[in-house]
Amino acid sequence: MVTRKPSRSKQAPNPYLTTSTPDELEPPNRIAYEIMSERRDLLPSVERIMNAGLSAPATIDALTMFRTSLQAPGDPNRDPSVAIARAAADHSEAPVPVET
How far apart are CA 82 and CA 62, in angstroms? Predict the structure, then answer.
């Protein structure tokens, strides 16, 4: 008897990872694209911010704080959870908890 494995629902890849040009992206995805084009090793951090459940303006702020922190040694926003929390607080939002 042949049994099939249940199929996993396929999630569409994030647009900032699949586009060839950032021109067609919304602002949060454009910033994520720019970060990824410079530092591919930061994918887990960018993914964490992008999937935090923040509004677009809060996501933009979190990504901007994170990107700026890359040029400032010791900046606490280098930790994506700090950037998420600060952006959420600035916009009076609660981030969606991320399971680890």
Answer: 9
Instruction: Return the DSSP state at 53.
Output: -
pTM value is 0.80
Provide DSSP, 41-97: GGHHHHHHHHTS---HHHHHHHHHHHHHHTTSTT-GGGSHHHHHHHHHHHTT--PPP
Please choose, from the candidates 56, 52, 33, the residue with its C-alpha nearest in 3D space to the C-alpha of residue 43. 33
pLDDT tens digits, 52-94: 999 999 999 999 999 999 999 999 999 999 999 999 999 987 6
Q: Closest Cα to residue 35, out of 58, 68, 3, 5? A: 68
* H or E element, residue 36: helix 27-38
First-last CA distance in the chain: 37
Whether residue 67 contacts residue 95, with contact meaning beta carbons closer than 8 Å, is answered with: no
